[in-house]
Amino acid sequence: MQKTQLSIQQQIVLCLSVVLLFSICLTIAGYMAGEQEREKIAGFSSDGAVATGTITKKYIRVVGPGRTWVYWLDLTFTTPDGVLHTASTNVANTIHDRYKVGSPVQVTYIKSRPEYFHIPDTGPTQRDVGMSDGMFRYGAMASAACLVALLGVLYRGGASGTPARQSPPPQQPRNGTPHRGRQPRTSFGTRRA
User: Fold this and answer.
1) Cα distances (angstroms) measured from residue 42 to each of 110, 116, 120, 123, 175
2) CATH superfamily placement of domain 9-134
3) Distances (CA, A) of 86 to 3, 51, 62, 107
4) Contact assessment for residue 72 and residue 87, using Cβ atoms and an 8 Å cutoff
5) Residues 6 or more apart in contact with residue 7 via CB below 8 angstroms
6) Is 130 left (phi over 0), alpha (psi -120 to 50) or beta?
7) Nearest residue to 122 via CA among 37, 31, 26, 60
8) For the sheet containing 84-91, what is the strand order?
9) CB-based contacts of 90: which residues, under 8 Å, 6+ apart?
10) Distance (Å, rounded) from C-alpha 34 to C-alpha 130?
């Protein structure tokens, strides 16, 4: 079975397509994260409530190729309507060290959406919104640049009118068996014409 090799133009198109897809994902993620952070900040200021919760579990997860430690706290809190909420939150190591399992913790949550909550020193800030907006902005610029480059490569390839070079098919001997790359035997020291 003959393997086909991509031309230089096809390789460039493939690379630009992958980068374009990645930058579009980054743009969407940045937009959604920014909107969620804005919603949380607005909700905490207009519809926020405070409850006393309890730390139920502390743990560290090691993630990524760099073996990064990510610190987590599991907690429970009860809203005034008597509903018990169980949640997990990712925290800095200094906050993680501050609490023990079973210790009380002040939980600020949004009354209409108790899944949005934070403990002291972990609430959303304008800095978080700015980081998400930056991710959205740079992702959008990268998407636009990749799209322009991709269209340019495709247009240039189509407008040049020259067909892509293809390697010639392997030659077969007249008896129908494929040529296996053997060279004809020559006598040592004889001169070739």
Assistant:
1) 10, 11, 17, 12, 81
2) Nucleic acid-binding proteins (2.40.50.140)
3) 55, 13, 23, 12
4) no
5) 164, 165
6) alpha
7) 37
8) 84-91, 68-78, 48-63, 104-110, 113-118
9) 70, 71, 72
10) 8
* DSSP assignment string, 31-87: HHHHHHHHHHHHHHHHHEEEEEEEEEEEEEEEETTTTEEEEEEEEEEE-TTS-EEEE
Which tokens sit at 16? Answer: 């630009």
Number of other residues whose CB lies within 10 A of the CB of residue 98: 16
State mean pLDDT over 126-153. 93
d(CA 154, CA 10): 9
pLDDT in tens, 53-87: 999 999 999 988 888 999 999 999 999 888 999 99
Least reliable range by pLDDT among 100-114, 123-137, 151-165: 151-165
- From the number of C-beta atoms within 10 Å of its C-beta (0-12, 13-18, 19+), residue 159 rates as exposed
Does residue 26 contact residue 142 with C-beta atoms inside 8 Å?
yes
The SS3 call for residue 101 is coil
Q: How confident is the model at residue 104 (pLDDT cuts 50, 70, 90)?
A: very high
Structural contact between residues 27 and 139, judged by C-beta atoms closer than 8 angstroms: yes
Cα atoms in the Cβ-side hemisphere of radius 13 Å centred on 160: 9
Give the integer Cα–Cα distance in Å for 19 and 142.
Answer: 8
Inter-residue contact 40 to 116 (CB < 8 Å)? yes
